[in-house]
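Title: Request for sanity check on COQ7 protein prediction

Description:
We are preparing a figure and want to confirm that the structure record we downloaded matches what your pipeline produces today. Could someone re-run it with the sequence below and paste the raw structure tokens into this thread? We only need the token string, no images.
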Amino acid sequence: PAGGVSLRLCSTRATLEGINKPVIDRVIRVDHAGEYGANRIYAGQMAVLGRSSVGPIIQQMWNQEKDHLKKFNELMVAYRVRPTVLLPFWNVAGFVLGAGSALLGKKGAMACTVAVEESISDHYNSQIRTLMEEDPEKYKELLQIIKQFRDDEREHHDIGLEHDAEAAPAYSVLKTVIQLGCKAAIFLSERI
């Protein structure tokens, strides 16, 4: 399991009992979509930069994202949450974003990583606040998973900064555009 976090569910019935199903559906659906999109972004970056000096760093971050996606796949089954209908779109959009940013070079790929991971960290923090307001004990295991994944995303953000993301061409414009796209993707994936 990613970050040593595991979630053991005795039975689906016990899991669903007493939870705020609409809130949990939104949390798990959007997080699954986000981790799916992140996997596609790193796949696109690896397609372009996989054999470069930054390839192993991108691969390391991608491996963590694969673990995150695996966990959210499990949570979707356990909590009976349907995926967003936008997955086919995120499949293409994520890969195009990853490959497109990587075509700008290492700095462009890292700028993309910083923008996306900052957006996701902020989003995870918002979810943590929501679940804490709902019932921190009832959602203890889910909170633990989200906190661990948020910390992983922050680490990816910092790796991007350490690898010259801010030196990318038109960094602030690139970051702003990518983050607006992330906000739109989050909004849509929670609902559709």
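Thanks, this matches our download. Confidence is low (pLDDT under 50) at residues 6-14.
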